[in-house]
Amino acid sequence: MNEQNTAQTKSEEQEEVLKEIRQLENRKKILENKQRNEERRVRTRRLIECGAILEGIFPLAPNLSGAEVKAFLIALSHLPGAAELTANLSKSGDTP
């Protein structure tokens, strides 16, 4: 009888440990989802801010398609001095 009780106790302990593992795995998934959502929120905010700046500087921007804006920015990047300006901005963190 004692062996049967010991086996049952070990089985119950194992079930408790497995339950705790499942709970921790679920908690991990929840925390990963929260982190991804926060990263997405930060990226979205950054993109909105950059888009607002672009529209403020270039009034035609709201009427352009994404491909047109891309082509416009590529053309700007090929202007003389653009590469140096970009390199200096990324090093110093300053604005022009």
Automatic annotation (TrEMBL):
Swiss-Prot/TrEMBL keywords: Coiled coil
Pfam families, alphabetized: DUF3847 (PF12958)
Coiled coil spans: 7-41
Superkingdom field: Bacteria
Protein name: DUF3847 domain-containing protein
Species annotation: Eisenbergiella tayi
Lineage: Bacteria, Bacillati, Bacillota, Clostridia, Lachnospirales
